[in-house]
Amino acid sequence: MTLAELRQALDAFAVLVEEPDAAEARLRRLASS
Fold first, then answer.
1. Sign of dihedral through CA atoms 22, 24, 27, 32?
2. Confidence at residue 32, expressed as pLDDT on a 0 to 100 scale
3. For 14, what's the count of Cα atoms within 13 Å in the CB-facing half-sphere?
4. Domain range for residue 23?
5. 3 state SS of 33
6. Do residues 11 and 18 touch, judged by C-beta distance below 8 A?
7. pTM given for the model
8. Among residues 27, 32, 29, 33, which one has the least CA distance to residue 10?
9. In 3D, which of 7, 4, 9, 3 has the Cα closest to residue 29?
10. Shortest CA distance to 19 belongs to which of 11, 30, 29?
11. What is the pLDDT of residue 16?
């Protein structure tokens, strides 16, 4: 995992608290890439 990927994952988890649906979609995109 690169630093950029780690930042994306951290951003997704941060959004999870405020926007669970958006965060889930972002995590799914990360997992499929």
1. negative
2. 92
3. 6
4. 3-32
5. coil
6. no
7. 0.45
8. 27
9. 9
10. 11
11. 78
Q: Are 5 and 13 in contact (CB under 8 A)?
A: no
Please report how many Cα atoms fall inside a 13 Å half-sphere around the Cα of residue 10, on the Cβ side: 7
Residue 16 corresponds to which tokens in the numbers above? 């999870």
Into how many domains does the chain fold? 1
* Count, residues in the chain: 33
Report the amino acid identity of residue 6. L
Distance separating alpha carbons of residues 17 and 28, to the nearest angstrom: 16
Nearest one of 26, 21, 25 to 8, comparing CA atoms: 26
The alpha carbons of the chain give a radius of gyration, in whole angstroms, of 9
Tens place of pLDDT for every residue, the chain, 33 residues? 799 999 998 888 887 788 878 778 888 998 998
